[in-house]
Predict the 3D structure of the following.
Amino acid sequence: MNHISHLKISGYKRLFNIDLEMRPLMVMIGANGIGKTSMLEVLSLLSASAGGKLNQKLSSLGGISEVVTKDLNTQTESGKQISLSLEIPHKDFPNLNYDLKLEQQGFSYAISSEILCQQWPQNTQQSIYINSAYNSISYYEPNTNSFRVPNWNFNLSETTLSQIPKIYDQLEVISKILSSASLYHTLNVNAGSPVKLPQQLKPILFPGENGEDLFPFLYSMKESYPDRYEIIMDTLKTAFPGFESLGFPPVAAGMLSMTWKEEHFKSPLYMNQLSEGILRFLWLTALLQSPSLPAITMIDEPEVSLHPELLSLLAHQLREASRRTQLIVATHSDRLIRFLKPEEIVVVNMNEDGFAEMEWADALDLEEWLKEYSLDELWNMGRLGGKP
């Protein structure tokens, strides 16, 4: 599985100077407003930049002036620059590095530096594929073994990575990994939300970021991926004793609904009759069992509305899904932490200057403590830092 192995961030909100090893499963814990959501935003920003939507994403965040690190005492910008650097290991292209720097210019921004390169193992030689700064754009052209400048209408507000032809595999690898990164927030289960209304029947392998394709997704899974669908059913039966099956009654031409059958009820229940916890757990289970998970999957507060007894199952599903996607989670739930391992937890603390610091829990020398206490107890005791 291809994933980010290392990430450096500077100048983004409280993430003034972050240098972090990245692992297949990362569950971030810490107080409110300390930087967990900012980490998810940074990865979403990288994803947007790889897809040619950097300007759009920054605008949705309020512009670069709203996200650049400010001095917490004076509220002035610290350096007026956001720097993002990552490493992606690949079996064919080891030590693939991508660096992106954005410089604030008034209320707008400029891409002050963008470099894609590969450091060859046991060799000081470096292959450079993108080397751009401000309006000086250049990329490597393998056919001529030289650097070229774009001969088309190049958008200086977007990255070179998103605009040059994918003429060699290294570009394709990093572009695919970054552009596929997806962020999921708490499922909307209000009256009239997509998960409570009929949905269009279509072949699809993803339940939708807000459950808008949950019904056709589960129907497709039942028909085309029966083994994985059976895992979903077994998980639901373990989570909710008495649950029997899902039904997919058509409600109009090309539309279907979904029902929930329990042994204690003669008639099945429709989605608008189910609790928030059931709906959210059902959607999370479907999401994590999808056969088409992106290279990077981010989930913000998956524990919302879930009964504490469901969190053990959720932790197991997160761990299993991290074999197929790099899974980055932000949580406030001490009960979820109980079911995780120190090597799966990133503790987010605030230093004396008010900026975020991130450290893996397995680097905190917890072995003796864990003989008497569980991880959630250590968190509540303050032994992990990042107190909830």
Observations:
- The two ends are 32 Å apart (CA to CA).
- Residues 36-50 form the longest helix (15 residues).
